[in-house]
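ok new one. same drill as before - structure tokens go in, u give me an amino acid for every spot. 258 of them this time. try not to just spam alanines like last time pls lmao
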């Protein structure tokens, strides 16, 4: 969510300056202050930097069918296409350039703790109810940032399902928790890269099918053993810490989607 304090300060400051200075202040990049992150320039193909990286994290759920957006800080064709899909999904002009309208929509969707509006750290952590981000193979910091990336994809998936609530039954699991639950030893839940999903208004097959369009490379749903009551969605292709799962793996045989 946006806070307007900085904007008001800038306007007040501008009013106190002589004419020439006002022009330069007014022409400065959008002064929207956000509790999590504020972009300072327009972004488009060819640009690079941490601001591109921050954008990529937030549009990675708009990767298109079977696609992923690399979070590499380089605004390439995949990023432009994802921005275009994001813009179209929210009724903005889909030109693939991230400017004030796109950033304003992201500020609206973004909570001050950097999670998207409809998902929270609380529901993504502690698969066994213990809370916290430690006890997995990665540092707590890395795990938590993976969880943020997962949540932005979930926000996109939720939007594609008509803004219907999606519930996360199980997100991050520590190694001990994963063992206790009987999860796979290389489970993406260990990395903060996975969420087990349910909905009260959409079928599991709809979730499993739509998830293919939103940056998830591991998807298991109805018909896959152990997945009759939820859909598992993860980002295994982007997880460089796991040598064994660098490929897409989708299975929901009862849904007719393979
Ligand atoms: Zn799972």
């Amino acid at each position: 969510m946006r806070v307007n304090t900085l904007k008001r300060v800038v306007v007040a400051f501008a009013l106190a300056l002589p004419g020439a200075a006002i022009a330069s202040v007014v022409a400065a990049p959008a002064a929207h202050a956000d509790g999590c992150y504020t972009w300072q320039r327009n972004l488009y193909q060819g640009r690079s930097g941490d601001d591109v990286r921050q954008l990529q994290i937030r549009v990675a759920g708009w990767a298109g069918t079977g696609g992923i957006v690399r979070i590499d800080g380089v605004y390439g064709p995949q990023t432009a296409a994802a921005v275009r899909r994001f813009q179209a999904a929210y009724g903005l002009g889909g030109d693939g350039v991230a400017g004030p309208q796109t950033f304003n929509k992201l500020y609206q969707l973004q909570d001050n703790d950097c999670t998207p509006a409809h998902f929270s750290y609380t529901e993504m952590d502690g698969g066994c109810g213990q809370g916290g981000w430690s006890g997995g193979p990665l540092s707590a910091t890395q795990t938590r940032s993976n969880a943020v990336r997962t949540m932005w994809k979930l926000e996109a998936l939720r939007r594609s399902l008509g803004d219907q609530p999606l519930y996360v039954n199980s997100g991050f699991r520590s190694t001990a928790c994963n063992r206790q639950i009987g999860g796979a030893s290389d489970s993406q839940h260990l990395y903060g890269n996975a969420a087990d999903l349910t909905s009260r208004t959409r079928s599991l097959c709809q979730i499993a099918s739509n998830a293919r369009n939103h940056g998830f490379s591991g998807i298991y749903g109805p018909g896959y053993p152990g997945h009759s009551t939820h859909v598992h969605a993860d980002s295994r292709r982007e997880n460089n810490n796991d040598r064994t799962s660098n490929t897409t793996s989708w299975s929901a045989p009862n849904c007719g989607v393979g």
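The first strand starts at residue 2 and ends at 3. and btw The pocket of zinc ion is lined by residues 189, 194, 196, 232 (CB under 6 Å).
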